[in-house]
From TrEMBL:
Residues 132-145 have a biased composition (Low complexity). Residues 5-229 form the SET domain. Pfam families: SET (PF00856). CDD domains: SET_SMYD. It comes from the Eukaryota. This is SET domain-containing protein. Residues 89-151 are annotated as: Disordered. InterPro entries: SET_dom (IPR001214), SET_dom_sf (IPR046341), SET_domain_protein (IPR053185).
């Protein structure tokens, strides 16, 4: 963590603690990096994951245990109830490989990008400081491997820790094997509150380190807010996911507007009731794939199409500024836009099985990587993250075409 830190943790009205800017900070600034305290294999069945996590937790220093115990843990959400049901179900049959627990019900989750997941759990490697929960079958590099502890019953404390981890963990793609892991970052990252209009952007790199950057200029005292969800999820999908997984209703301006539209008009989720903004560029001129994209299908993927179009317009205007060499803060913003648009295309492509959307996602991720490389460096975590997405999406494309 940088010293002196650019942030401070303090109470946020109505939300427990939050993370705040300690001083004025310009767009693109790296605010902090935090290695995962625990790294967990997202593919393990719930019960096995819970047990492995408990074993790792027991080996942590008391100070780190306290950090995890103090994490917000909503027990009355749909997700928490489902996890407890799963744990109860497999009460005697231990750790069979059936029932792969994928609790990740965030629609639009894209390959390779870090999201606040509700994924299942434990196992893994690397990170010197990281304690890794492991399925007893892992390979040589898991020196922290936990011996299988089959027959011990799970205690209430084990389950509480597991729920805290599932609520606060963040998914990322492992470098060596391309598998999905979940990192737990209890010091700072897990204290970040949510908004659907984030002023900071985060990514977890392939080694399980969380990095947070300013999306725009920040003022001292401003709360730093991330989005737990993909940016272009429509209001209805956001409301449902936040309620089911995190147990709260978001009160940001986007949600207030979404709620008023939702109450006023019928119809399905998506850009209901909102006509094209003034100066709206027809979708077909922005990107040929939109020509054939019906709003209904977008809403199936939980995408707010009007929101997406507005952002693409903004991206185009900023690209024009770039060409005119009006740099300023453009690269950081442009990166954020390209990334968000890539994420939306990705959601539509993977959910709707649309190769053309996946191709668009690849193009925008490539743009984000180019901009990022220009602004930060070739080795920046965000640049590598974008390239990782491009690689993962190309694999998906090959699957679509059956090769
Ligand atoms: Zn919101």
């Amino acid at each position: 963590m940088s010293c002196p830190p650019l942030f401070v943790i303090q109470p946020s009205p109505g939300k427990g603690n939050g993370v705040f800017a300690r001083r004025d900070t310009s767009a693109g600034t790296l605010i902090f990096s935090e290695p995962a305290l625990l790294t967990l294999d997202a593919s393990l069945p719930a019960r096995q994951a819970c047990r492995s996590l408990a074993a790792c937790f027991a080996r942590l220093p008391a100070e780190d245990q306290d950090k995890i115990r103090s994490l917000h843990c909503p027990v009355d959400t749909v997700r928490s109830r489902r996890i407890m049901l799963e744990l109860a179900h497999s009460d005697n049959g231990d750790d069979d490989e059936s029932g792969t627990t994928q609790a990740g019900d965030d629609p639009g989750t894209n390959a390779g990008s870090s999201t606040h997941s509700g994924a299942g759990f434990p196992a893994s490697k690397r990170r010197k400081r990281t304690v890794s929960a492991s399925s007893g079958t892992s390979s040589a590099n898991s020196r922290a491997a936990v011996p299988p502890q089959q027959q011990q019953p799970l205690t209430e404390a084990d389950i509480a820790i597991y729920l805290a981890a599932t609520s606060n963990g963040i998914a990322f793609l492992g470098a060596a094997d391309g598998k999905t892991y979940t990192g737990l970052f209890p010091s700072v990252a897990a204290r970040m509150n949510h908004t659907c209009e984030p002023n900071v952007v985060f990514a977890v790199d392939h080694n399980g380190v969380y990095h947070l950057r300013a999306r725009r200029d920040l003022q001292a005292g401003e709360e730093l807010l991330v989005s737990y969800l993909p940016r272009f999820m429509a209001w209805e999908a956001r409301r449902r996911t936040l309620g089911e997984c995190h147990g709260f209703v978001c009160g940001c301006a986007r949600c207030v507007e979404g709620a008023s539209r939702g109450v006023a008009g019928g119809g399905s989720a998506g850009d209901r009731g909102r006509g094209p903004a003034p100066g709206f560029v027809p979708a077909s001129q922005i990107h040929p794939t939109f020509e054939v994209l019906e709003h209904q299908r977008a809403s199936m993927a939980g995408i707010d199409l009007a929101e997406l179009h507005a952002w693409i317009r903004e991206l185009k205007s900023r690209e024009w500024n770039l060409r005119k060499k009006n740099w300023g803060q453009e690269p950081a913003e442009l990166f954020g836009l390209a990334y968000a648009i890539a994420e939306a295309h990705c959601g539509m492509g993977l959910v709707l099985r649309r190769p053309s959307e996946v191709e668009s996602a690849i193009a925008y991720h490539e743009l984000a990587a180019r901009v990022g490389a220009k602004y930060w460096s070739e080795t920046d975590v965000f640049v590598r993250e974008q390239r990782g997405c491009v690689m993962a999406l190309k694999v998906e494309l090959r699957k679509f075409s059956g090769k």
